[in-house]
Amino acid sequence: MKGKAFFIDTTLCTACKGCQVACKQWHQLPAEKTVNRGSFQNPEDLSFSTYKLVRMEEVVVDGKLKWLYFPDQCRHCLEPPCRDMAGDKDAVYKDEKTGAVIYTAATKGLAPEDLECPYNIPRKGEKGLLAKCDMCIDRVYNGQLPACVKTCPAGAMNFGDFDEMLDMAKKRLAVVKKTNPNASLLDPEMVRVIYLVAEAPLLYHQFSVAGLRRPGMTRAAALRKLTDPFTRAVASV
Amino acid sequence: MDVTRRSFIKITGVTTAGLAIGKLGFDLSPVKAHAQMLKTAYARETTTICCYCAVGCGAIVHTSLKGDGRVINIEGDPDHVINRGSLCPKGASLSQLVENENRLTDPMYRAPYSSEWKKVSWDWALDQIARRVKKTRDANFTAKNEKGDVVNRTTAIASVGSAAMDNEECWIYQALMRSLGLVYIEHQARI
Amino acid sequence: MTNHWIDIKNSDCILIMGSNAAENHPVSFKYVTEAMARGAKLISVDPRFTKTSSRADIYAPLRSGTDIAFLGGMIKYILDNDLYNFEYVSQYTNASFIVTKEFKFDDGIFSGFDPKTRSYDKSKWSFEMDENGVPQMDRELKDSRCVFQLLKKHFKRYKTSVVSKITGTSEADLKKVYETYAASGAPGKAGTVMYAMGWTQHTVGVQNIRTMAIIQLLLGNMGVAGGGVNALRGESNVQGSTDHCLLWHIWPGYLGTPRASMETLDDYNIKNTPSSNDPMSANWWQNKPKYVVSLLKSFFGQNATKHNDFGYGWLPKVDEGVHYSWLDLFDDMYKGDIEGFFAWGQNPACSGTNAGKNREAMKKLKWMVNVNLFDNETGSFWNGPGMNPSTIETEVFMLPACVSVEKEGSITNSGRWMQWRYQGPKPLGNSKPDGDIILELGHRIKEQYRKGHGVFPDPILNLKWDYSTDGAYDPHKVAREINGFFLEDVTIKGKQYKKGTLVPSFAFLQDDGSTSSANWLYCNSYTEKGNMSTRRSQKDAPNNIGLYPEFSWCWPVNRRIIYNRAAVDPKGNPWDKEHWVIRWKNGGWEGDVPDGGWPPLQNEDGTVNPNSRYPFIMRKHGHGQIFGPGRADGPFPEHYEPLECPIAENLMPDNKRLVNPTAAIYGTDADAHFTCDARFPFVGTTYRTVEHWQTGLMTRPQPWLLELQPQMFVEMSEQLAELRGFKNGERVKVVSARGSVECTAMVTKRFQPFNIDGVDVHQVGLPWHFGWRWPNDGSEESVNLLTPPTGDPNTRIPETKAFMVNVVKL
């Protein structure tokens, strides 16, 4: 597979949120006015000015407390449903070299729901545009790591050629599985942002994997949508 | 200062936790409008060490060579052997510490019983402070303690701070305070 | 840190206790992660399950303020199971020293206690000396009066069952931690500890660290790669500002400030310079007079001469037995005894314990100078909650300092690395580097004394103050002064050194006025070879353990791991062959800069080499101190409860003292404190979050960081929330004997009640980053309005990690 990919090893993440700020810093995105909702996670959700968000969940697994971290962002799907659903070729396109899925000013007027993102990523701004992670494509074209990857202190965020990242993810999975039999890679063959999780995916986030929580959509259907844009119309009927 | 673009790229090919990732082997020909020059292309690079915790992470400051000469980007220094380009959220937000509309940019004075600040000049402020230091010190100088030992000190002036200063600043600061006879010299390390 | 950040990767077992490194030193986790990838175990001990705990192999909760009990249990475990490194303990520590019969420990008190002054006569804790004045030793560690046997006796009471009752940690968890950590005592293995204010901010703060230091000595973990006792310092230059001694009790380079009785430099040197009769003890501090005179030459330049005692008499002296520390300073200010106050790059209205007292105290000042990047709760104290400006006389001068990237100079990290920073943009607006402000203020004060009659003007007029170039502060000039100069042409060991050249290292400093050095520890940092702190070489040392000896510079003399002569056995072979620090080869040491170049303690045939020196060269007797007779509160650590605690009696057997009998206590009407009081039933503690820094003054005015952590909060267990009827996210009030603060309730499984001797004890935790000035709607306040008026008897660091509170509905 050509192009680039992220490998996000959540087992190494410490939820320092360096990636959240590095993303805002590089993109010069404004801060949101937030409140403490009784959680270390803030903001509450992704937004037009928050492309990256470390989601945090406290769960008890087999009687043991776990604090799970999930640095959420656009998955840059290999066959992005949002591109197909957008209708307008100029609104959402896939960069040839990197595989980055890019939103442009032509997203004006589209609603996030219209794009049927299985990971619930796109967000609308005040001026009617949609926004999300752009893979720091300007940096990548200039030989630099995406801001979130570069800033990650603990080695959770990785970036490189797709095959290499997938290979790294698989090798790391084998290591993690020895101590965490429930560990898995999330939709590894379908996305350019491959997550490794140690526990059941839904414990991290309701949209951690494609379609699992989409009303009226089975996982198989969701995956079909991801992999085969031509069956999309059928599946969504 | 020997940070070069080349070493920047070289280091970005090494991951953080000792796992190897591939080189970012692009040709740099622009294929789309987004593949523009980096915003840091017309900037001067200087290295710094993060001003927050004491890990001592290196960062690169990009100062614009155009216009107002202000900071346009600060990110981790990939050649720094401790942080290897990474930064926590505080370090990653350094540029907003510098370019911040809440910063103080002029000396301010609050008069007795006043409910407001007044903007003043450096010249006036430092002159007034020097006068007050002398007045308080001279009126409250202890040459000998109760036992009759020579102590040459004043306890009527106290100082706290600062671990936020550079080494060289710390040294001249303590020298100035000790020359005045202060013994109440304390800072963050005590708390 | 005895070691340094990168060295954490060499560890086999990392104990994070008294700190939350994943939250507060996130980049350190790069090296924790590397160690774990090699198979190292990570242990997290903390009252609540933290981000660090979430990555740990073992998590064990403990009630705040019970670390000595927890670690004392580990000492007992190590001794009971013979898990210590016998050769290391016998040869390198004072475990073999014989203690006089005057030393006793009864009912929770060591011998020599004077209840009137609440202090000890430390002469009761001394060693038996032989006819030459050398400590008597039993290297077999069998003598009933040797330190090793006394240690065994002292910690016999720290049974796991007892410890569990005190700490609230289950016996199973205690055993897991003890077993895992003690395994680092095996040959070739190393264990390290990463601690911070969670250990220091207690009335037993120093003894918390002493307990761990004893463990590290027993396990042979001092001096080795991946070992050491590592304080994770919280501010970018708190190491440097401590080295340069912005502290009442020490002069730059940790030279004690002179006491009133030391009238002359001779008096000072005699009373402060340790001497040892043991020819095998390097007793490095015997060089102190050289460092003192070189410092005085830097203070006063040519005005310091042999004839005037190098200006020694110009500097202030402190009274014996009197403390001038933070707590005392604000106590004095509260009593109205201080007129003028500099709050320079510090925010005591939020940072100090019992901050309400500090804020009241500021009203009694005539004038205050506040230097900062942002308006803050200290400079604007007269405008804060509950203040009426029209009744407050204090004049305030608020001066704008520039940000670190707008100036040039060096800072020193936790691993003692001095690193140079360069100027990026020019200072914003009319802000200035602190250096320019200090220098100009000094000139103005000198001018005042030059033109007018003033009291005792000598030190002010004679102060060397030539640190500008072209009218601006020049950090290079100060950095060179800190390193030091030859002030005369000299010949040392056959080599000539010209007057005016930089001294190569502190071994060249003299006590006759022929050298200057503003801080002997930094001598070697800026030499004729250049500014060492700017170095950026990526090359590692031959031992390949991440020392990077040509990247920046570290004190002392670029030694990256201190006490490294203990990293080898007495014959000079590394305990750990893979991660060796130094080793003896072909008649010399290779690897890190050794703690002195003397040969190994023993020859190949096992006989003692009289040309060698014991490895702990900064100790008078050259040995690591398992028995620490210099501390204010005892030569061995002992569990005492915090000043405010939830139980009425010390649960440690044979200890009738609840609280450290020497703890610092204050008596104004603003110093209320209560123990076992039903009005304040819950243990409170304070900590930091990754998004903010200290009082938040350099993070709260930043929208990106405020977005991540916008409001004051209190973390509590689900059980406590249910008890009080709180919902997660609800605003509640936390109250102590000193004040109250509104917080958002963060209800979490990560806090659990502690079972203390059969009773459920709840604990809550609060961050200390907030204050009323930012966010600028005034909605948030500082936790230090709650914290207690007491501190450690050695350091006087306040006990902000354990106190009693209530949590109530708004």
Plain-language structure description:
The complex is a heterotrimer of chains A (237), B (191) and C (810). With 237 residues, chain A is an alpha+beta fold. Chain A has helices spanning 18-27, 81-86, 137-141, 147-151, 162-179, 219-227, 232-236, and strands at 4-9, 53-61, 64-72, 92-94, 101-103, 123-124, 130-131, 157-161, 184-186, 193-197. With 191 residues, chain B is an alpha+beta fold. Chain B contains 5 helices and 8 strands. Chain B has helices at 5-12, 89-92, 94-98, 122-139, 167-179, and strands at residues 43-49, 58-64, 71-76, 108-110, 118-119, 142-144, 150-160, 182-186. The model of chain B is unreliable at 1-35 (pLDDT under 50). In chain C, helix 4 (67-80) packs antiparallel against helix 7 and helix 4 runs parallel beside helix 10. The radius of gyration of chain C is 27 Å and the shape is globular. Chains B and C meet through strand 1, strand 2, helix 2, helix 3 and strand 4 of B and helix 2, helix 11, helix 14, strand 12 and strand 13 of C. Strand 7 of chain B pairs parallel with strand 12 (340-344) of chain C.
Number of contiguous helices of chain C:
21
Strand percent estimate of chain C: 15-25%
Strand order of the largest sheet of chain A: 8-1-10-9
Give the overall silhouette of chain A.
Answer: globular
Q: Which sheet architecture does the biggest sheet of chain C show? A: 6 strands, mixed
Give the strand tally of chain C: 35
Strand content of chain A: 15-25%
Low-confidence stretches of chain C: none
> What is the number of beta strands of chain A?
10
- What is the straight-line distance between the termini of chain A? 31 Å
Poorly predicted regions of chain A are 228-237
Oligomer: heterotrimer
Order of helices and strands of chain A: EHEEHEEEEHHEHEEHH
Fraction of helical residues of chain C: 10-25%
